[in-house]
Write a structure and sequence with these properties.
37% of the residues lie in helices and 20% in strands. The chain is globular. It is α/β, with parallel strands linked by helices.
Length: 241
């Protein structure tokens, strides 16, 4: 079984995360799957940005949802780049598979604008086929289904926590692990190392997929792969492709 390597917000060794250059760098080193975050501006523009505000990336306290497209275009990150709009990302990186993290603060507006983009550009079926969605609130996942009934979603934070805790407690049946759903697992929890075959096989017994969530040490990545992780979401470069 081949492993899926996913670039977390692009390769940010030289560039600000979630920017065109960061994603281009990720593609250059072999990533075919890109994870990013979607928010919506005051005038309905989809933009790739993790935090609610620009403090960490641009040294400005302004919130994304309070800015217009024109105001956002005046923002400069530390490396000189501008915030990346989704329409630009979609045009440039249409050859990649995506994980779209729909941030909860503007989730309703984001989903509507994403549906509008998909319809207006004729990319509705393509989006369903090539993207997976991460939602943070059950009500937002329900709204996603209204716009995209066949969308593939990742297990959310509470689902992953429930599944992991039930396995660690020796009661995997309480985890309610679903077939073909992808669950995230960090390298450690309360000092306990989690990338062990006996832990990962509990997910695979339910025919679920396991994503190694942001292992930083090469040894942890190797052990995740050896234990049977299907996917690896990582900040740096893949060990091998």
């Amino acid at each position: 079984m081949s492993n899926v390597w996913i670039s977390h917000r692009g390769l940010d060794e030289k560039y600000t995360e979630n920017t065109r250059s960061a994603f281009e760098a990720a593609m250059d080193v072999g990533f075919q799957h890109l994870e990013t975050d979607l928010r919506t501006t005051a005038d309905g523009q989809l933009v790739l940005h993790h935090d609610p505000d620009l403090q960490r990336t641009a040294g400005q306290p302004a919130r994304i949802e309070d800015l217009s497209r024109n105001e956002l275009a005046q923002v400069r990150y530390e490396d000189g780049q501008v915030p990346l709009l989704f329409e630009e990302f979609a045009d440039r990186f249409c050859d990649a598979r995506w994980i779209l993290d729909i941030k909860p603060e503007t989730a309703a507006a984001t989903l509507y604008q994403l549906w509008r983009w998909a319809r207006e550009t004729g990319n509705y079926d393509w989006l369903i086929k090539n993207a997976r969605f991460l939602m943070w609130d059950p009500s937002h996942e329900k709204l996603l289904r209204n716009y995209f009934p066949d969308a593939i979603t990742m297990a959310n934070a509470s689902e992953c926590h429930r599944a992991g805790m039930s396995i660690l407690a020796g009661l995997p049946i309480l985890g309610r692990i679903q077939k073909e759903r992808t669950y995230s697992l960090p390298p450690r929890f309360l000092g306990r190392f989690l990338y062990k075959p006996e832990i990962l096989k509990q997910y695979h017994r339910k025919k679920a997929r396991l994503l190694a969530y942001l292992p930083e040490k090469p040894a942890d990545i190797e052990r995740a792969l050896e234990a049977g992780a299907n996917e690896v979401l990582i900040n740096g470069r893949p060990l091998k492709l």
